[in-house]
Amino acid sequence: MQIVKTVSRRVLSCMKILFKQLIQRKPMVTLQVEIDTQIEFKRTLSWWQLLAIGLGAIIGNGIFVLSGQAASIYAGPSVIVSFILTGIIALFSALSFSELGAMMPLAGSVYTYTYAALGEYLAWFIGWNSILLYLFGAMTITVAWSGYVVKFIYLVCDLNATRAIVQAPVGWNETAETFYVTGQTINLPAIAITIAITVLLIIGVRETAMVNLVLVVIKIIILLIFIFACCKYVNTKNYDPFFPTNLGSFSKYGVTGMLQASTYVFFAYVGFDSVATAAQEVKSPEKSLPIALIGSTIISLVLYVG
For a disulfide at 41, which of 88, 135, 276, 280, Cβ 3.0-4.6 Å? Predict the structure, then answer.
């Protein structure tokens, strides 16, 4: 009986220690020391380079991939409202990130903020969620980019590459919301662009930011030309009904479909988190971070609606 009591006390003691570790927070004093003493990162980025990083992460995903899918599957023309609603929510998140990032300009982003406010366990959980978020974001962009490149090559030189090397073995059915086997082997263009960007990141964050800035400027110019050049071709009859009749499902048209599309396109806005992760490499983070976070969210919202 005495042995059982001793073992029970030790187990309880270990559990208490473990629980204290899980809820242990990192004080602001400790974070400030890390900010002041860590010299691995050089603060080389300006606020406009940081703004371009945010725009590069947000715009491409939503405009070139998600907007058409959200309109056709969930919302119809009311996808515009979905982007506005989601943009307002994302703006509130950007305001929170701005304040926290200015206080704690570390590369950990939301992981660091959670560690300081809620403890180690929740920070660990949020950190893994962020990894998954970036993983799915990168996969979505690279696969979409691959599809555009393959089609472009086919249109330019009539080279129809075998699907076995330009499509992944597993795909996602948007309508049925299930994975399916494509029968193909590998998506080489998607792998190639992933390797190329990885090499660019290894070379240096300043070089990456400059390349990203050039690409973002080109992308925004093209989008503005597209928006203004196509204004006279807009057929307003396509906006009637603005909220298409609900087809008996929460996620298929109607107001509920618009709300479902909001949850779908929010994935496009979370690119502003990439701004916060660069906090340790930007000059004057207390000023640059809010400008880049809020600015990229508002500019993206305007472009999405346009």
Answer: 280
